[in-house]
Amino acid sequence: MRIGIFICHCGSNIAGTVDCARVAEISTGFPDVVYATDPVYTCAEPGQAAIEAAIHDHRLDGVVVASCSPRMHEPTFRRTVERAGLNRYLFEMANIREHVSWIGKDRDANTNKAAELVKMAVAKLRNNRPLLAKSFEVNKKVLIVGGGVAGIQAALDCADGGVPVILLERESTIGGKMAKLDKTFPTVDCSACILGPKMVDVAQHPNITLYAYSELEDISGYIGNFTVKIRKRATYVNWEKCTGCGACSEKCPSKKTPDTFNELTGVTTAINIPFPQAIPKKAVISAEHCRQLTKGKCGVCAKICPTGAVVYDMQDDVVTEEVGCIIAATGYDLMDWTVYREYGGGQYPDVITSLQYERLLSTSGPTGGHIRRPSDGLEPKHIVFIQCVGSRDKSVGRPYCSGFCCMYTAKQAVLTKDHLPFSQSYVFYMDIRAPGKLYDEFTRRAVEEYGVEYIRGRVSAVYPDGEGAYVVMGVDTLLGRSVEIKADIVVLAVGIEASRGAAALAEKLRISYDNYGFFMESHVKLKPVETNTAGVFLAGVCQGAKDIPASVAQGSATAAKVLALFARDRLENDPQTAQVDTRRCVGCGKCIRCCPFGALKETTIRGEIKADVIETVCQGCGLCTTTCPQGAVQLSHATDNQILAEVNALCRC
Amino acid sequence: MNDDINLSRMRDAAFTEDVEAQSGQKVSDCYQCGNCTAGCPAGFVYDRQVNQIVRAVQLGLKDEALGSRSVWMCLSCSTCSLRCPNNIDVAAVMETLRHMARRENRVAAPKVENFWFSFLDTVRAFGRAYEIGTMALYMLRSLRIFTDLDLAPVVFKKKKLGFMPHVVPHGGAAAVARIMRRYKERAVHERVRP
């Protein structure tokens, strides 16, 4: 083998504490090394050109670059050697920046360590073999989990791009949290009016298949070829026949069913359609509250239904779909604010969440759009908004900012003045976070034009004054005094957390999630919609707090990723996969059981049971390699021989 | 009190570190939400509110923090610690500031300290709190002869005050006195104000 060595200065990043010329000089003494140099910037265009030239001039068939972390530039240099005609796996990288120059100041010791790392890389390279990728077909179909505004946007963009979309929604209608909102900031336009047409587009688009009231049961496969099982929960109504006329819910005698769409601010019937613009506009029976299903006596809806759509003995149905990639857009839920005993912990009827207040403002809500106190139905005069309830609060395990509460609180205060001109709103805040377009102007308008009183401080306690109102004890830190307000209604801007079940979904999708259940993006700045699992993308709040414009933008961004992926007919796998030496394999099956990706299967060779790797599924994690009692499974590009060669190079000086 | 604060001259980073080390609380965790002040039942007699005291500690303004009467008006009820979203034991910070102020002989509210001495004297003598004794000693020390005297008939009628001190059995009073003596000896040894 003829090996060339390039010891990068990285400007002064490496050369500042490592004698690069000396390392290059030492390297010439290593076996098979025929050329060594120390460029200032190896990754720059002249640096890469120098590698290509050296490969030609010195007839190199292996290259070692000692520079930064392989996570940074390994792909760059692999492309460089490939351009010069070498296989990309006849290249090794020694990290002498993060592992040497940045962490030690002793120049001699650093130089010595850098030389040793290069020596190990040379030893590894001498055992490297050319590896070739395998290509496989892509199933050009996408599954989108979650039918909120982010999922809807992603679905429409993918569908418009000609990709068949399967949209999965847990509730009986798409629309998510945005469908529950009355108006949206900063333009105060009607939420249902701008979301509604998009929802209708979803229903009518020929490329979109909508599974509402359904959940993801199971996922297997890999990028380009996922197999998903979808559980269609029993609605007890045949949606093929249901026309959404609503006659059933008018006659349903079980009228005390908690209305989850209205955030429990009102009651509904056991069979219902959540709101007039619902998509699909189909009825669902709540099994827990239906008299027929709980007591076996009633059957009113079945009698009244003009199309005979009600089916009391309906069962869950599991369907299987094949897709090429998956978008998670599962959104958020409010945190359990009842941990705040000082705000009543859910005991006081007129201390409500902002989402409940939104339903009181909404024309499709329980009060028909008139603000009325839940306790006695009277119009409130004094309204107190408390921000950051369950946000930026380490003591309840929610240290992050929920991002959009400042803005919707300002919006709700403005709407309150519109609805009730003689009311007075107070907002307790810590900081106003309004960095979006026209956002700060909007919060200022709330103060300047709508007379909303912003109080910089927190609320320590809320308690009933015994006369139907509530005493709000807080502080104005700008004044340096505690303040007290008598409020008719208290609205808590409750912080968000990942949607319930998000962690379980992440495990099915094999993507990582943070301590709060939000899904982890591949790179926080440069790969915000990708995940570390190829073929799984993220959109909306499931990745972290964001408002509607950002969710929509991210929905479109994921669609762009999907369309780019599906622009190719075939994909190539990473050839750093596990390989089974069938002569050593005893067919114990341990590797098959330990593989987290289902990439190993049993096969029979000349009547003997052996393990076999499905190379397009294998992610190269190496679990099977360490599990195999025979050493029969080896990970290409990280074989036992390659690792031992490195260890020998280091230890046998 | 309202003089300009020259941060480059008056900032004392060592003071902030001292308070953090002695109280075991990370004062820099505070983002000044004001929840401590919002819940403070004694805030109405403070010259600086709790969040302002914590701010002074964050900035290393030793005179602002130790010279404040508020640290002496603090009831140690710990509502501030309970409410703090950043899990800072604010009451412990206030306690630390009281100790620091005493050690430096700068007690901004001497009457409060007099009351404590009066209380501790009765404990040293009888092993337990002796309310009337505390009152009498405090009146002598502070020269506030008639303070709260109007309450006396009511509490006597409700039998909340006993004329005689409580008796601690098995030589408990002497044991308590020994503990307090040991503490005093150690303070002398370590050259701090007991």
Could you name the key traits of this structure?
heterodimer, A: 653 residues, alpha/beta, Rossmann fold, FAD/NAD(P)-binding domain, 5-stranded parallel β-sheet, B: 194 residues, 12 helices, 57% helix, 0% strand
Describe the structure.
- The complex is a heterodimer of chains A (653) and B (194).
- Chain A folds into five domains: 3-126, 3-Layer(aba) Sandwich (Rossmann fold), CATH 3.40.50; 142-233 and 316-331 and 501-566, FAD/NAD(P)-binding domain (3-Layer(bba) Sandwich), CATH 3.50.50.60; 247-304, no CATH class; 335-497, FAD/NAD(P)-binding domain (3-Layer(bba) Sandwich), CATH 3.50.50; 578-636, Alpha-Beta Plaits.
- Chain A has 18 helices and 34 strands.
- In chain A, the strands form twelve sheets. A five-stranded parallel beta sheet of chain A has the order 10-7-6-18-29, with helices on one face. Chain A has a five-stranded parallel beta sheet with strand order 20-27-21-22-23. Chain A has a four-stranded parallel beta sheet with strand order 2-1-3-4, sandwiched between helices.
- In chain A, helix 2 (45-57) crosses helix 3 (70-83), helix 6 packs across helix 7 (191-204) and helix 11 (354-361) packs parallel to helix 12 (405-419).
- The two termini of chain A are 21 Å apart.
- The model of chain A has no long low-confidence stretch (mean pLDDT 95).
- Chain B has 194 residues and is mainly alpha-helical.
- Chain B has helices at 7-10, 13-23, 35-39, 50-59, 62-66, 70-73, 79-83, 90-103, 110-126, 131-142, 152-157, 172-189.
- Chains A and B meet through strand 24 and strand 25 of A and helix 3 of B.
